[in-house]
């Protein structure tokens, strides 16, 4: 966990900052600002925000429990401010969120989708799986032709788990 940062459940008033971080990534599909506000209100327990010393968000993960598989956490978006990358922040957020969701909600599987060009995301999730000794299954969830706009890469579903007891560090999770 990078020094000087803390991890918490997001609050509704973090929504605008999460939208800005997603926009500035220039990689993520940018959703409406409204959706980030709503996410912080309704899915705070399955999401996480990293704050710098001033309390401002510098990274986040949004996720939800799949309605038909409530022990599966679908990780929707992960983003870290450019200035904070490469310090282990995304890995710390993912481990802490998995630990919290495991303890509080019984989560033992994580799903996410990754586009084939996203090496950092691929590394983030496969490293998480390796640290937890969890199997990884991959299959195309949404092919390029599923998207209404042209040029969208396929979204490959990574299914990680089941894992027994996610190892998170509660000392870093102020939620
Ligand atoms: C993907 C992203 C969240 C990673 O954040 P980060 O805090 O820099 O990641 P970490 O430092 O925790 O690194 C996690 C793992 O990914 C690897 N990694 C990080 N950046 C990488 C890159 N550009 N290329 C290859 N591997 C990379 C790290 O080496 C680490 O692996 P390790 O544990 O085996 O050493 C960040 O680059 C980002 O916000 N990208 C834009 C948004 C995005 O693509 N999100 C993911 C899709 S939802």
Spell out the key features of this protein:
175 residues; alpha+beta; binds coenzyme A; 27% strand; disordered C terminus; seven-stranded mixed β-sheet
Explain what you see.
- GO terms for molecular function: diaminobutyrate acetyltransferase activity.
- The C terminus is likely disordered.
- The chain is globular.
- Helix 1 crosses helix 2 and helix 3 crosses helix 4.
- 29% of the residues lie in helices and 27% in strands.
- The longest helix is centred in the middle third of the chain and has 17 residues.
- The protein has a seven-stranded mixed beta sheet with strand order 1-2-3-4-5-7-6.
- It is built from four helices and seven strands, in the order E-H-H-E-E-E-H-E-H-E-E.
- It is α+β, with helices and mostly antiparallel strands and 175 residues long.
- It has a single domain, classed as Gcn5-related N-acetyltransferase (GNAT) (Aminopeptidase, 3-Layer(aba) Sandwich).
- The site of coenzyme A (COA) has 21 residues, from strand 4, helix 3 and helix 4.
- Coenzyme A binds next to strand 4, helix 3 and helix 4.
CATH topology: Aminopeptidase
**Fraction of residues in β-strands:** 25-35%
Low-confidence stretches: 166-175
What is the H-and-E element order? EHHEEEHEHEE
Distance between the termini: 16 Å
**Total helical elements:** 4
Give the gist of this structure.
Pfam families: Acetyltransf_1. With 175 residues, the protein is an alpha+beta fold.
